[in-house]
Design a protein that fits this description.
Elements lengths: L1 H33 L12 E9 L2 E8 L15 H19 L16 H24 L6 H22 L2 H36 L6 H27 L3 H4 L4 H21 L7 H20 L17 H11 L25 H6 L1 H10 L13 H12 L6
Antiparallel strand pairs: 1-2
Helix pairs in contact: 1-2, 1-6, 2-5, 3-4, 3-5, 4-5, 5-6, 6-8, 8-9, 12-13
Amino acid sequence: MSSMTELLHLIARWVHLIAGIMWIGNSMLFNWLDRNLVMPDDPEKGLIGENWMIHSGGFYQVKKLNPEPGALPKMLHWFKWQNGVTWLSGISLLVLVYYMGGAALMTDAAVSRITGGSAVLLGLGCVAASWVLYDLLWRSPLGKRQTLSFLLSIAIVLGLSAVLFHYLSGRAAYMHVGVMLGTLMTGNVWMVIIPSQRELVDATSEHRKQNLAKGYQAKARSIHNNYMTFPLLFIMISNHFPLTFGHALNWAVLLVLAFGSALIRHFMNIRFTWRNWFLPTTLVFFATCVATLIFFSHPAGFGRQESSPTGPQRWADIEPIIQSRCVPCHATRPTNAAVTVAPSGIIFERYSQVSQWKERIKLRVVSLRNMPLNNATNITDEERARIGAWIDQGARED
C-alpha cells in the first residue's frame, strides 16, 4: 500500500509540474506578445498588431486580429486544458499530502488546538471563499474602479491568509494560500476568460458583431493571473524549504517574498514602455533577498533557544531521544500514519545513519526547531538541547 501511495504522489507531482510549465509558459508568452505587438506600414483590415520572431531555426509571424464576422479559420487553437490539469493535479496533491493520513500535516499544537477534520474544512472554506469574494468584487460596480478593486482583492487574500496562519500549521497555511491563488487563477480561466473567448468565437462564426467588452474583461483577468504567477511559484517550492514556513514569522516571510516577486513581475511587464526598468527591478530583488535574510538570520525567529546542558552527552543518552522523536518518520517502515516513506529517504535507525546527517539534524532540530514536523512526536526543549550538545561534542558513539 505504501508503494502505491508513493506512486500516486509521484504521478501527481509529475503531472502537476508538466501541466504547470505548459500553462504558465503559455501565459507568459502571450503576455509578452501583447506587449510587443507592432503595426506594420500597410496593415490589413482588423489587424491589432503583429510580431516577428525567430526560434528553432525558423521565422514566425504572429498576428493579433479583430476578424470580420464569419472570418474564422477551420483550425482554432484554445489554451485551457493546461490550466485545468494543473489545478486538478494540485488539488490531488493537497488531498494526498495534507488531507489523508488523519490530516496530520494540517495541524500544529504550538499554533492552535484545531482538529484535523476542522482544519481540512477550514482550508477548503477559505479557498472557496477567496474565489466567491474576489469574483463578486470584480463583477460588481466596484470592479470598474480598478485601483480600489485591486487593493480590495489583496485585502481578501490577506484576510483569509491570516485565518489560515492562525489555525493551521505553517506548512499547511503556505500550501493553502498557494491553492487560493491557484483557484483564483483557475476561476479566472474557466469562469471569465474562456466564456468571453467563446462569446467572441460564436459572434464571429455567426456573422454577429463582436462584443469587445468581453475581450477586455478576459484580458483584465489574464493580467490578474500574470501578477499572481510569481508568488504562486514561490509557494510551490517553499514546501521544500522549512526556513520559510517553519519561521515564527512565517506569514511575514511569505508577505515579503510574495509582494516582492509580484513587484518584480510588474517591472518586467512595463519594461517595454519604461526603459529604466532594470535598476528598480534589481533593487526590489535585492531588497526582498535582504529582508528575507534578516528573518532567517534571527535565531529567535525559530523559537526559544535553550542553553546547552552541562556535562558530556553520549550516544547511549541520545539514542532513545532519536528513537522516540525521529524514527517514527525516519525509518525503513515509518510508524507515523501520515508518513509512508522516510522523508527524503533519510533513516535514523542506527548510529552510522544519524552521525552521517548530524549537521542537518543540528540545523533542523536545534537551530530552526522545525523538526519533528509540527512537533508531531512532542520533542522537548531539553531534548533538543541535549542533541545539540552531543553534536557539538563530536557526535561520538562511545
